[in-house]
Known about the structure:
Elements: E1 2-8, E2 12-17, H1 19-29, E3 33-39, E4 45-51, H2 57-68, H3 82-94, E5 97-103, E6 106-107, E7 113-122, E8 125-134
Antiparallel strand pairs: 1-8, 2-7, 3-5, 3-8, 4-7, 5-6
Amino acid sequence: MLITIPIQTPPGDALVxxxxxxxxxxxxxxxxxxxxxxxxxxxTAAITLNSSLDPTTPDDIIADLRRLVPTRVDFKHQYxxxxxxxxxxxxxxxxxxxxxxxxxxxxxxxxxxxxxxxxFDGPRERQVQVKVIAx
Length: 135
């Protein structure tokens, strides 16, 4: 079963904690042991695991990604906007999928780990595809 998590993102770059939604998707499947594959089907968005203990962590991550890949007008590809081109590069650096082990019906995340959806060209209506595989 494929479950889709809808996400409405704010303007610009953002990190959205979707851990609760992913946990609920896993519960819906009833699978107790296996793998949870998360896929972002967008070219200017990404997904990762990172800390959400300190609420300023996303600010630091976003700031440094902006420093590494600033929005600029000299990108060769600018189908939409310079922000769109920068978003493609940021998404390629972070990645479009995450695989998490499930045991006893729960995601095996570290104590400070959360599932974070990266938006690089908001505001947008986005989605994360969740596939839970027993095993």
